[in-house]
Fold this sequence. Notes:
Layout (H helix, E strand, L loop, with lengths): L2 E5 L3 E3 L4 E8 L7 E7 L6 E6 L5 E3 L7 E6 L4 E6 L8 E8 L15 E2 L3 E6 L1
Parallel strand pairs: 2-11
Antiparallel strand pairs: 1-3, 3-8, 4-5, 4-9, 5-6, 7-8, 9-10, 9-11
Amino acid sequence: QVQLVESGGDSVQAGGSLRLSCAVSGYTYSRNCMGWFRQAPGKEREGVATISRGRIERYADSVKGRFTISKDNASNTLYLQMNSLEPEDTAMYYCAADPSRAVYCSWFGADYNYWGQGTQVSVSS
Length: 125
């Protein structure tokens, strides 16, 4: 059974940092695309960052230069380092796995089969 469990969400002030973790079990995630998505109240879910099998990273324009996605294949853990947080980053953050892609990762959440339960990030001004 595939399980993705996020952690690391918190309430911080603008300019602060957080590191989100996503522990993956039941799935060899290192072979395929993984992504972080977020959804703020009243808004649609949006892609934040993706990482391919070969560790090619992609970022939403809104987080480029501030967020970094990474993975530790030995521990089956996906990370999202978030620096210089802004109130606009407030959202529920989800990690997701796409078993059908490995090189060119999709930006669409509908392409990801496995999802975690989410972790809340709140940034105050």
